[in-house]
Design goal:
With 441 residues, this protein is an alpha/beta fold. It folds into four domains: 123 residues, Rossmann fold, CATH 3.40.50.2300; 172 residues, Rossmann fold; 74 residues, Orthogonal Bundle (Helicase, Ruva Protein, domain 3), CATH 1.10.8.60; 51 residues, Arc Repressor Mutant, subunit A. The protein is built from 19 helices and 16 strands. Helix 4 links the parallel strand 4 and strand 5. Helix 11 crosses helix 13 and helix 14 crosses helix 16. Keywords: ATP-binding, Nucleotide-binding, Phosphoprotein, Transcription, Transcription regulation. This is Sigma-54-dependent transcriptional regulator. It comes from Pedobacter ureilyticus. Pfam families: AAA_lid_14 (PF25601), HTH_8 (PF02954), Response_reg (PF00072), Sigma54_activat (PF00158).
Length: 441
């Protein structure tokens, strides 16, 4: 264990120093940072495997910092620490790639064994064949050769070098965030930050404070000034995912940012100005939302300076197997092939969740697979609807127990990651483990 390096990012200096001392006594080499910016700099300077990151930092959201660290160093494992955890934050942290998310009150009981497990996971990342392969960046990260996709890429490459606002339209799971990242990385803003937020994932009040920030004392719990995502993205790009779900009063404030680059923090009287390139995305028909009174017409026309429609996966049949092969290589350290039946099942399936559904399907299938060939019987029941593939005598509870155990084993007992792979909530996972008497690892 001695010599393994970790980084603590926490602006509460006394707590940071205390936690560092505890972990140093366990034999770890500990680096400390009191801001997100300091932490990112230390990550570039040292060979750090695990990061403990506070959720509330003076210059970053610790949860958004997870995505940024994972983008730069995907092999690093991050544990989010918070004084007051919320379900929304834990879900977002998990989605962004956090190893785990715990409240600071649990530190004494959980932090040391959790850090040990995080190092085990980081070691696997470092030694696995797939983690050594650099993740594709920019437009290289968009996998496919179908005509609709190539047309979308061509359009995106044309708009990327400009300052134009871009509106990405497409069903959930079609890769809008991947396109937004590619546009940012091919723009003059590429050397600055890309900040992203899902407007449908958090409540209106929290969304406003996350976007615009607040002054100390603006509301109960606002113990210090906080920069919002707009300030953090100054000189870079702000990606507003699912903007069709943004409340009307927030739409008016975003319109002002688009018009003159100004905004006002919560609890502040002074106007701030930023230089931000805006990319927005939605799965909704915004013109229909305008007619219903749910979306501002003036904002719609401001956003749709350059509109890009992303094709759904069922319209990209040529790309399904290419994407499947990419995800197999990404999630498996060994050479795995797809049987003919497996390939045909993928091609015939109605991909309602698009690329995201395909990615999750491949990842779950690899967990269940025990050979070098993926067979169609490993796919979910929705892929195998014929009577020959069903067995009424099977005990569904037993199947569920074994499946949960296998996924828990695959994630080394990480409940957050297990819940994500199973497609259920964290509370549901704990309830099922209690119900079936599954050990808590």
């Amino acid at each position: 264990m001695n010599g393994k390096s970790l980084l603590i990012i926490d602006d509460e200096k006394k707590l940071c120093d205390l936690l560092a001392r505890i972990l140093e006594l366990e034999g770890y080499t500990v680096y400390k940072a009191y801001t997100g910016k300091e932490g990112l700099a230390l990550l570039q300077q040292h060979n750090i495997a695990v990061v403990l990151c506070d959720v509330k930092l003076p210059d970053y959201s610790g949860i958004d910092l997870v995505a940024l660290i994972k983008q730069q160093k995907p092999q690093v494992e991050i544990i989010n620490l918070t004084a007051y955890g919320t379900i929304a934050d834990s879900v977002k942290a998990m989605k962004n790639g956090a190893y785990d998310y715990i409240t600071k009150g649990d530190d004494n009981d959980k932090i040391i064994p959790l850090v040990a497990k995080a190092f085990e996971a980081a070691d696997k990342n470092a030694t696995s064949k797939t983690s050594q392969l650099p993740l594709p960046k920019g437009f290289d990260a968009i996998i496919g050769q179908s005509t609709p996709l190539l047309e979308a890429i061509t359009m995106a490459k044309k708009v990327a070098p400009t300052e134009a606002t871009v509106l990405l339209l497409g069903e959930t799971g079609t890769g809008k965030e991947v396109f937004a990242t590619a546009i940012h990385q091919a723009s003059k803003y590429a050397t600055s930050t890309l900040m992203a937020i899902n407007c449908s994932a958090i409540g209106a009040d929290l969304l406003e404070s996350e976007l615009f920030g607040y002054k100390k004392g603006a509301f109960t719990g606002a113990l210090q000034d906080k920069k919002g995502l707009l300030e953090q993205a100054d000189g870079g790009t702000l990606f507003l995912d699912e903007i069709g779900d943004m409340p009307l009063h927030m739409q008016a404030k975003i319109l002002r940012v688009l018009e003159d680059g100004t905004f006002i923090k919560l609890g502040d009287l002074q106007t701030k100005k930023v230089n931000v390139r805006l990319i927005a995305a939605t799965h909704k028909n915004l013109l229909e939302e305008v007619e219903k009174g749910n979306f501002r017409e003036d904002l719609y026309y401001r956003l749709s300076v350059f509109t890009l429609h992303l094709p759904k996966l069922n319209d990209r049949n040529k790309d399904i197997l290419l994407l499947a092969e990419y995800f197999i290589k990404r999630f498996s350290a060994t050479a795995i092939k797809m049987s003919e039946d497996f390939q045909q099942a993928l091609l015939k399936h109605n991909w309602k969740g698009n690329i995201r559904e395909l990615k999750n399907t491949i990842e779950r299938t690899l967990i269940l697979n025990d050979s070098t060939i993926l067979e169609s019987n490993l796919l979910p029941a929705t892929f195998n609807s014929s009577p020959a593939n069903t067995n009424a005598n099977l005990d569904m509870a037993s199947i569920e127990v074994e499946h949960i155990k296998k996924v828990l084993q695959y994630t080394s007992g990480n409940k957050t990651e297990t819940a994500r792979l199973l497609g259920i909530g964290l509370a549901t996972l704990y309830r099922k483990m209690e119900q079936y008497g599954i050990p808590k690892y």
